[in-house]
Amino acid sequence: MDQPDRTEHPKQPQPLREEWPEVEKAEKLARGAALKWASGVFYRPENLEGLGQYRSRETQRNSSIQSRLKSTVQSYLEGVSAGLEQLRSAVQEVQSVCQELGAARWALLDCADRFQDLQQMRTLMAEHVQLASVVQVLPQLFSVHEVFSHTLQLLRGQHLLEAHVEIMMMEHLRDNILSQLHLRGLSSAQATVLSYFSGLQELNESLAKQLWGIVGSSLQLVQEDPVLFVTAVRIIEREEKIDDTLLLDATFLPPGRPKGWRQKFYHVLQETITGTHFHTTRMDAGLSRHLEALQRDIVSELRVVKDLMVQCVPAHYNILSVCTATYHQALASHLQDILREDLDKQALFHLLKWVLHVYHSSEMMGHPDLLPEVDVSSLGPLISPELVDQTERRYVASVLEWMPRTLNREFEEWFREKEPKTDHQGFFQSDLPTDVIEMLNSNIKVTSSITSSLQQKVYNMALEELEAFLGRSVEPLTPLPFLTDPYYVPYLLAWGLLQGKAHMLPGSRRAGAMGCCATLQMELLQEQHGAGHFMFFCASFQPLCVQLASRKWLSGSQLVNSMCEVIDKYAKDFSRVKKPVFTLLLTECEVLVANQYLRALMQKKMVCKSKEERGQFCDRLLQDATQLRELFCSLNLEAVFAVRELLCLKDTALLSLEVLGFITKYPDVSDEHISTLLDLRGDVSKEVRHMVLEMMAQHPQALPESYQPIFSTILVPAPELPFCLRKGKCA
């Protein structure tokens, strides 16, 4: 049997499609697409003739593609070959560097001991440098005490710049040594150095003492010897620069730094200004002269600062603004101290005028020589508005302290059993009211030169004092003292200021009412509104008015006769005073009679039960009004007559029309007043009342400017509530 051939054949390389399956897939797709195209093109016999041409064209195309692929692959292969060559040379260079680094490492390990020797040499070199610097400053150290003595002599001779140069040199030497010791942490050595340079402290104190003395005399020196003042400023600026430099280097700050001499300059200058002028003990010659001296000195010194001192200091000192603010603040504090003292009215007047007028005027801070550089408007008021108000009140109280005593003495004389003085015409007279008004007017005119608020305070306090006096003067006018002191009211009339319970009307204190004696008198006369009321009350007039519109009044005329007798009695007393008080009293009596009469009607003391009684009521009203009008000759009782017409109307259906005319003539009448009058009639039904009130609601009335209120001052009593029993009907 033939044996099978076991000869091993060499392995064939795997086709490309086994390595890249995508190639096989792409080839299949390409073949399928080509077959589809060829079957479509050569499906017809007439197209088969061009098959040879197509085959040759495709052969050329494939050859072109293959050649381009070969060239592309060839270029990639050449690049890869070049890269591999570069990598090979780089590996060789890295290996060479590694060998050299290894050799250098071994060389460094061999030199480690030699480096330690170099460190010791470096330390010796640093010590040698320090020793050399110490040897260099040894001559200066040895001459320190000699320099101290020389510097002290320079200071005594006022060679300040040279002395300051040597002081700076010594400080620089000391600070360098201390800085080195500080870096090495040798604190014990620092104490030794400080003790060695202890004389510097004495020199600095001596220099500072002379500098502050110069600054304290700066206003005089800039006029006589400005060089000395400029020298002091230059030294201060040197020290400020040294302070700024050392503060920037925060590693070491020498002792005594920062000196802050510029701030000390401002402080000394301010203390000098304050101590020179603003002491209360300088007021021995009086406050007025003291303020005049302050005004003169401040203006003079600010001129010196503006014209001379500004040229001697750097611009950033703002010396003029600093001095202006210092004078302003010191003066404000000084004035507050003065106001704490017990000042008389003259001193308070001068102080207020000086603060509010003189200080800002062209005579002082607004002086032409100081403008426009000096401006105190931004510094605030010299004294606060509250303190101005308090001072004004103190002045007013001091000015008017005479008034209560004078009025009290006058009041005590009113109880004498002697008739007051009369003039040649027989009128009561008293000189005191005129004297008081003239003195008040004089004070008001004087205060007008200060402020309107002070003028108003004097005016108001004067009126308040007169109010208080008039209030006290009418307190004894109760019925018994009034009858037992027959000359009390004549004294009131002689004074010409008869006043009931004194009260201030809001519109009576007008700024335009201040300025002359006559105006103030008229103002006081306006405050006498209601004076006649109290007189008639004291004369038993009020009890008579209470009986009006009652059944007793309806039965006879004796009540009105009694009222006329009372009025006539006091009219005789009123005739003993001159106008305008006499006219005012008569007018008040007329107003009182009309008001009290209408007020009595509104009390609803009776209700007319029949037509005859209502007619009797109206007749009595007509008789009373006619009798009172004849007594006064000009008494305005039109309101009483109008009420009578309303009550006498026979046809109640016309009440709406009658009431409309009534409220048109008297627009201050209210629903309550009309309801009360309708109740007095006794014959008005609920329907008519409702119709009248509805008509009033539909025709509201406005008060004309010249209208004198009548009914608005008369209150209608509240209606009595019906009394109800439990579980029963109301009566």
From TrEMBL:
InterPro entries: EXOC3/Sec6, EXOC3/Sec6_C
UniProt record, GO biological process: exocyst localization; exocytosis
Keywords: Exocytosis
Tagged with keyword Thylakoid: no
GO molecular function: SNARE binding
GO cellular component: exocyst
Pfam family name, one: Sec6
Residues covered by region (Disordered): 1-22
Coiled-coil features, chain-numbered ranges: none
Highest taxon in the source lineage: Eukaryota
UniProt similarity note: Belongs to the SEC6 family.
Family matches, as PANTHER family: EXOCYST COMPLEX COMPONENT 3-LIKE PROTEIN, EXOCYST COMPLEX COMPONENT SEC6-RELATED
Name under which the protein is recorded: Exocyst complex component 3 like 1
Gene assigned in the entry: EXOC3L1
